[in-house]
Structures are given as structure tokens and as C-alpha cells.
Design brief:
The chain has 250 residues and is α/β, with parallel strands linked by helices. The chain is built from six helices and 13 strands. The strands form four sheets. A five-stranded mixed sheet has the order 7-8-9-11-10, with no helix packed on it. Strands 1-4-5-6 form a four-stranded parallel sheet, with helices on one face. Helix 1 packs parallel to helix 3 and helix 3 runs parallel beside helix 4. The longest helix is centred in the first third of the chain and has 22 residues. The two termini are 18 Å apart.
Length: 250
């Protein structure tokens, strides 16, 4: 299950979309319910929960702070508990392997040129989740080997890598990550662009996740309108993407 771009705390009301913390929780509940149905439908015993970031709206731009219902500390506190409950419900169905990456909306310094990668609210969210769920035997937290902004893991004999996507253009991401890590991957996962996207090259598949938020004022200004969605990918020993579900949440 790929989750990303929840932008919790944002307050949006346009012709195309209404989004606020209450709507976010409704969509998260729907995502959980539909994920559990797919777990049972597909007979899944082990789930990789891949958090590709931007869980909070953040404070990196002034318009974000103006259009946020909650301050960034409240965003972080509340989404951490929402995620903890989300994972707890999933662990009642199967084993959950949790992994995450740093992103751009969670950084402490609005100036991305001066921001330190380790100074991110993502680290607080993940620390909280590990402490909150440390007594849950059905969840495992995977550590990033390649850096805070890159997660990687194996599913059967397939190699998977994930990034938020703010540093990796969609058209170049397959070759860029392969060249950077000097590894071949069977599946690349990304987010950031707020819309579903798929590609493949040299036996590597790419899937880019949608957003929970949907269309905001910035997307409207670019004449872009995408419905909220998240990805659920089913693998087996022969195929890393045996089934790909785009879970629409509006």
C-alpha cells in the first residue's frame, strides 16, 4: 500500500474539491476499509506500507500557512496518531512492514537551499509510530539504507525502491535512481505530483501515487484537476505487479 500527499491540516474549498482535517479522516477511513477488503480478497499475509511523504501540509510557503486549518505542530501530532491507528487496524489483518522517506512539505526550514534533510517533521512522526506501536508484534519498521529520502526493500526476489519525488523528475526517475544507486530495481515508487502515473524501462516499472487531498488552489491555477487516490499493488513470486489497484477516494 502506497500512501502519500495527505497534506493533513490543509483547508481547501473550491468548485472541484473540499478538503480539511475532517474530510481527510473520512478518506483515510475509506482507504483503510477498502485496503482491508483487498487484503482478504487477495489472501495477503504480509503488507508493505510505503509512506512516501507529505503527510502534513507544513509551513514551507506562506499560502500553505494561510490555507491551513491547523498549525504545523498540531498537524504533526494529529497525523501521527491517525497513522498509528491506521497501522494498528491493518495489523489485525496481516503483518505490516512500515517504511517511509523524507519529503519537502515536512522540512523545518522553508528555504529548501538551506534546509537540512534531517530537520524534518517526518522523523517525529516515525519516532512516535515506533514508540506507540513497539508492543505490537505484527508491525516491523524498516530502516533506510540509502538515506533519509530513499527507502528500499525486497518483495520475494524483487527489488523495490521508493522516493517522494521532489528531487526526481518523473521522466528521468528510472535512470536517475539506477545510476545513483548503481543497482537495478524491479519497481520504483514515487509521489509528489498528486496524480497517478506509470511507466517502464529496461524491465523496471514505475508507479507514481496520487494524493489524498485532491485538487488545491495551486492545481487550479495550472488548470489541473485530479481526484484523490492511493495505490495498492499486489505481488507474487512471478510478478512484482500482478495487480495494481488505484483506490479512488472521492
Amino acid at each position: 500500500l502506497v500512501i502519500s500527499d495527505w497534506h493533513y491540516g490543509a483547508d481547501i474549498e473550491t468548485y472541484f474539491n473540499i478538503y480539511n482535517p475532517e474530510v481527510a479522516k473520512q478518506r483515510i477511513d475509506e482507504l483503510l476499509a477498502r485496503t482491508i477488503k483487498l487484503i482478504y480478497k487477495e489472501g495477503i499475509s504480509e503488507l508493505f506500507l510505503v509512506n512516501l511523504g507529505d503527510m502534513i501540509s507544513g509551513l514551507i510557503h506562506l499560502p500553505l500557512r494561510i490555507n491551513s486549518r491547523l498549525d504545523v505542530i498540531s498537524q504533526t501530532i494529529q497525523i501521527s496518531e491517525v497513522l498509528a491507528e491506521f497501522i494498528t487496524h491493518l495489523t489485525a489483518c496481516c503483518k505490516v512492514n512500515y517504511t517511509s522517506v523524507s519529503d519537502n512539505h515536512s522540512r523545518l526550514d522553508p528555504n529548501k537551499k538551506e534546509a537540512l534533510q534531517v530537520e524534518s517533521f517526518v522523523r517525529i512522526i516515525d519516532w512516535y509510530l515506533e514508540e506507540r506501536l513497539k508492543d505490537n508484534p505484527n508491525v516491523e519498521f524498516l530502516k533506510n539504507k540509502l538515506g533519509e529520502d530513499i527507502c528500499s526493500f525486497n518483495v520475494f526476489d524483487f527489488k523495490v525502491i521508493g522516493v517522494h519525488g521532489d528531487k526526481d523528475p518523473q521522466k528521468k526517475i528510472l535512470t536517475q535512481l539506477t545510476n545513483f544507486t548503481q543497482e537495478h530495481y524491479d519497481l520504483v515508487l514515487s509521489a509528489h505530483k498528486h496524480h497517478f502515473y506509470a511507466d517502464e524501462c529496461n524491465e523496471t516499472e514505475l508507479y507514481s501515487n496520487g494524493s489524498l487531498m485532491g485538487t488545491d488552489d495551486y492545481a487550479n491555477s495550472l488548470r489541473l484537476n485530479n481526484k484523490p487516490s492511493q495505490l495498492f499493488i499486489v505481488a507474487d513470486k512471478e510478478n512484482i505487479t500482478r495487480s495494481v489497484y488505484k483506490i479512488k477516494l472521492n
